[in-house]
Write a structure and sequence with these properties.
- The chain has 141 residues and is an all-alpha fold.
- The protein has a domain of 95 residues.
- Helix content is 61%, strand content 0%.
- The protein has six helices and no strands.
- Helix 3 packs antiparallel against helix 6 and helix 4 packs antiparallel against helix 5.
- The longest helix has 25 residues.
- It is globular, with a radius of gyration of 23 Å.
- The two termini are 42 Å apart.
């Protein structure tokens, strides 16, 4: 396949830019960009738990879909923090119960089981990130 005329022009333009820039083709100035994940209400209701509890919930979610999420709902009642600070504790509790029910009911078609495992992984990731924040260690994920 022969390169088209447009491809040749693009390559020539890139070569001209690279020759004009002594640092190479890239002209980035080292700007730091911060990205924040926008979470839905169910995802934001996942509590920040201690690491061992999060691992137990992941284990439970792996073998009995929704059970770890159900257990994590009760950690909200015990004071676990979530990303929904403006919602009442009971509302966050019921959001977690709803997530557990969704996982249980859709486990029949494997969707709930996979969702349950990912939910447990999110619990562990949140527990790890919370541990880093408490210790003041810079975090790289």
């Amino acid at each position: 396949m022969e390169p088209s005329h447009k491809d040749a022009e693009t390559a020539a333009a890139a070569a001209a830019v690279a020759a004009a820039d002594p640092r190479g083709a890239s002209s980035s100035s080292g700007v730091v960009v911060q990205v924040r994940e926008k979470k839905g209400p169910l995802r934001a209701a996942i509590p920040y738990m201690p690491f061992p509890v999060a691992v137990i919930c992941l284990f439970l979610n792996t073998f009995v879909p929704g059970l770890g999420t159900f257990v994590s709902a009760f950690t909200v009642l015990c004071g676990a923090r979530t990303d929904l600070p403006d919602r009442h504790v009971c509302c966050v509790f019921w959001l977690n119960i709803a997530a557990a029910l969704i996982q249980i009911l859709t486990a029949i078609v494997m969707v709930g089981w996979i969702m349950s495992i990912f939910w447990g992984m999110d619990m562990v990731i949140l527990a790890i990130s919370q541990g880093y924040k408490e210790q003041g260690i810079p975090q790289q994920l």
